[in-house]
Design brief:
2 copies of one chain form a homodimer. Chain A is α/β, with parallel strands linked by helices. The first copy, chain A, contains 14 helices and 10 strands.
Chain lengths: 313, 313
């Protein structure tokens, strides 16, 4: 069997659906229609278990409604962890269901640690764990977000797992939040390339390219992508021009202020190499429309697809 | 009831036991005595559930054996996450048991995200979650490790939760791994203080001090500590002299190469303000001694305590 490299699979799905969107499954309880939560609370009492069951029902409805028009989902681990061990079950159920519907699954967990501990994280989310003679895939995502502050030996175990299990990762380069500048925009002493000093985030991007060139796939992108916030369009353009082999995950579109024109800069000359996240605007669209959450999510996802298509292509 | 600030509680325990040690509960399966794992596999089959049950039994034995001589434990989340949802149950059971034995619990998860997502993480590990009219504490640690790459607005929700629930955090400043230098040691352009350029890690440390001064407790330390690796003793000394209100968590002692003399530099003139982690050397001491894992862990913890005492006091 010929294996198609992880990001190539994502890109093919994006091409087929003409939609470079990933839907963020960030099920804060206030985003879930009250009747769903109420039903599970009635069954199980006021409990984290009831909340987790509501999350799974909510996510399954979203996935059913979106899987033929959106190529990927990105569960944000924090909202599952906030429900304790029941939340971990909900995360797993969500990933399993999305995969069963053919969606590419990015777990957004921003994990980071050293050596053997980074290896344990990569086994959890991308790889496998062995108990006795049996192998288990705890979460089995297609890709994981990571934080590169610890340097290359903290990233390497994730790359090794990505190569072994045909997965991918996205490391934080330039995040979408207002304080991103505090550390990420600091200028490094000494001349960078072309005599101009480099920022910390550019140095992180360069580091990612330098340790991943052996993993480049069909479309020219390596298994190590970068998170670059839609809220910083000039930085997106700068990084797109600088990081030729780095697939971009772009948060911050919509609710946080990034426009379609802003995120269009993340794409290469073939309209490839990036995927744009939207969470709240899609999953909580029902709050604005006042109608069914699944239908509301689908309409917003179609609107976003059309907006991105006209900005990019 | 007078609340004693989180790090003051830790420091009082350290003073009482004359032992600034935190034991890292990093239960990689190869560190668990084979008979424990075998017992649970026999009962439950080769499964993540069996592995998680073995982890809980192993940790409870360690906690029983150490709780009167060691003030704190630090479960490393990665090893629990690697067992999927069963691992989340094992993490919770471990935290609950350690707390019931009076130990200070630091969950080492190096979490990081923006705004409402960082809030969800802080609810999970330090705070509470509300379902209907009921409040739950998913993991209820005393402290959490975080990664500051996203800047102050990514840290603020953790500080808010720490203040509200009387908890604390440790942010990564200078990690213990070989690649730590790649990003953390970069020199920032322009004169820092005293005309010398600052490193990125010093800038992170400065940032932590600047956003936490309103949380300083009885011993002069704020609720925002720093992770500083034992493997970089000169940097420990530099940071101790620089960050007057920052409690240090020191990994890298022992197995990674940091000596007692190295870590002694993390303590203030009163022998306070830091806690030193040891994981494998204590929890897997049975591999060297060939005898009971609980007794072996206790002997190694006593040896470390005595070594630290003579280096520090």
């Amino acid at each position: 069997m010929v294996r198609i490299m992880s990001f190539d699979r994502l890109q093919k799905k994006i091409d087929e659906m003409r939609n470079p969107t990933v839907v963020g499954l960030d099920p804060a309880l206030e985003h879930i229609p009250p009747d769903i939560l109420r039903k599970h609370v009635t069954e199980k009492g006021e409990s984290l278990e009831a909340a987790a069951a509501a999350v799974v029902e909510f996510n399954m409805g979203l996935i059913d409604s979106l899987c033929d028009i959106v190529p990927a989902v990105k569960p944000q681990s924090a909202y599952y962890e906030a429900l304790g061990p029941d939340g971990a079950l909900a995360l797993k159920a969500t990933c399993d269901y999305a995969r069963s519907k053919g969606m590419y699954v990015i777990i957004d967990a921003k994990r980071n640690d050293i050596g053997s501990t980074a290896e344990a994280y990569s086994s959890a989310y991308l790889g496998a764990v062995t108990v006795g003679g049996a192998e288990f895939r705890p979460y089995d995502a297609d890709a994981l977000t990571v934080n590169a502050y610890l340097g290359s030996d903290g990233i390497q175990p994730f790359i090794d797992a990505a190569v072994k299990y045909d997965k991918a990762l996205f490391a934080l380069v330039k995040t979408s939040n207002p304080s991103a500048c505090e550390l990420q925009d600091m200028l490094i002493a000494g001349a960078g390339d072309a005599g101009a000093p480099r920022t910390v985030y550019a140095a992180v991007g360069d580091l990612l390219e330098s340790i991943s060139h052996h993993t480049i796939g069909e479309y020219g992108y390596s298994r190590v992508g970068a998170v670059v916030g839609a809220t910083y369009p000039e930085e997106i353009e700068y990084l797109r021009a600088r990081l030729h082999h780095t697939f971009f995950l772009i948060p911050g579109y919509g609710a946080q202020g990034g426009s379609a024109a802003d995120v269009a800069r993340a794409f290469d000359e073939n309209g490839r190499g990036a995927v744009v996240n939207s969470s709240r605007a899609i999953i909580a669209a029902w709050k604005k429309t006042g109608s069914d959450y699944k239908e509301s999510a689908r309409l917003e996802a179609l609107r976003m697809r059309d907006e991105l298509q006209s900005a990019i292509l």
